[in-house]
Amino acid sequence: MTITITAFERSPDGGKGLARDTRVRWALEEVRQPYEVRLVSFKAMKEPAHLALHPFGQIPTYEEGDLALFETGAIVFHIAQRHAGLLPDGANPQGANARARAITWMFAALSTVEPPILDLGTARLLEGDKPWSAQRVPLVEDRVRNRLGQLSRHLGDADWLDGAFSAGDLMMVSVLLRLRASGLLDAYPNLAAYVARGEARPAYKRAFDAQLAVNKPPAG
Ligand code: GTB
């Protein structure tokens, strides 16, 4: 069955991997599933046809036959459940536990690490002109540093969060990538190296290149 995802017709970052279709593309590339991309404008995202797929009028969405999904956590989890390569095989009790832990890291990325990172983006970009911004930004930065310190201590000198690369790492690296421009990751060399390891995966590179190609300015 054909898999179709949606992505920005024009991504605000010029297709440099920050829009969330990157993590879905990456997951599909890891499990070697071909997919099609329907590009949507900001206007089309708020129109009934797209709202029928995504009640919040956002990208990405995922369609496969009768199934339509939104939320990158649910989409990547679905891909990982359906295809081998992103979660440990849960057939035996040890594998089942490893699989549960990898899923735990997906949730940790989305519900514990991503929120302060998103807050920082909001504080810096959307609220930078508010009179209280100079007080708020350092507070949010401290919350991000707190999470990075905790994650850095857990990772130690391991390559991945829990044994082999999993959907948990895919999600965590995707979340941390959003911090690159802030410079906050630089204080945690093991996390910076972790993110670089994620980006060096051939599947990530294919996903990144495909997104960039969409956003390339026309020649001439
Ligand atoms: N929780 C949802 C998920 O994980 O799927 C969040 C989806 C989401 O935030 N989608 C954004 C969107 O559609 C695009 S990714 N926004 C349009 C809208 O809400 O109207 C967020 C994003 C966009 C662009 C950049 N960038 O260019 O730097 C970074 C992140």
Summarize the structure.
The chain is α+β, with helices and mostly antiparallel strands.
Question: How would you describe what is shown here?
Answer:
The chain has 220 residues and is an alpha+beta fold. The protein has two domains: 97 residues, Glutaredoxin (3-Layer(aba) Sandwich), CATH 3.40.30; 109 residues, Glutathione S-transferase Yfyf (Class Pi), Chain A, domain 2 (Up-down Bundle). Helix content is 55%, strand content 9%. The chain has nine helices and four strands, in the order E-H-E-H-H-E-E-H-H-H-H-H-H. Strand 3 and strand 4 form a beta hairpin. The relative contact order is 0.16. The structure holds S-(P-nitrobenzyl)glutathione (GTB). The site of S-(P-nitrobenzyl)glutathione has 12 residues, from loops.
- Count of DSSP strands: 4
Q: In terms of per-residue confidence, which ranges show pLDDT below 50 for 5 or more consecutive residues?
A: none
Assign an overall shape.
globular
Task: Please indicate the count of domains.
Answer: 2
Q: What CATH architecture of the largest domain do you see?
A: Up-down Bundle
Strand content: 5-15%
Give the structural class. alpha+beta
Q: Can you tell me the CATH class of the largest domain?
A: Mainly Alpha
Helix amount, in percent?
55-70%
Which cofactor or ligand species appear? Answer: S-(P-nitrobenzyl)glutathione
